[in-house]
Specification:
six-stranded antiparallel sheet; three-stranded antiparallel sheet; 127 residues; alpha+beta
Length: 127
């Protein structure tokens, strides 16, 4: 296994990960019962990134029922967005979606999924 793939895997061990974010009090949150994470919020403009991934035509449905968010440190078929590492801050990392001119911060919960901050993260939202 190449070094990049090894380092991109955290405690949960998958190369392609899936969470199911949902809205709580106007903020996107997610649960990860395997590591006892409950209602972990996405903060600041990370919520704008999520809204953009979902798209305005699907936003109301996703807010009511949640959605599947696939992500990986490697590209995968059908990914919608590539965000690039900018800097670390407060035990988390800032990422930039260059094509949309958006930046968002991912908290330390990402280390359940990644051993260290990946240089890139690829995302796909499915309603």
């Amino acid at each position: 296994m190449e070094e990049r793939t090894k380092k991109s895997r955290g405690m949960l061990g998958n190369a392609l990960m899936l969470i199911r974010p949902y809205k709580l009090n106007g903020v996107w949150v997610f649960d990860e019962p395997r590591v006892q994470v409950e209602r972990e919020p996405f903060v600041g403009d990370t919520n704008k990134i999520i809204d953009t991934l979902i798209g305005p035509e699907n936003l109301a449905q996703a807010e009511r029922a949640g959605f599947n968010l696939f992500f990986s440190a490697q590209p995968f078929p059908g990914y919608q967005a590539q965000v690039c590492f900018v800097r670390e801050e407060f035990q988390g990392s800032w990422y930039r979606w260059e094509e949309r001119n958006l930046e968002g911060w991912l908290c330390a919960a990402m280390y359940y999924f990644f051993e260290e901050s990946p240089k890139e993260i690829f995302f796909k939202a499915e309603i």
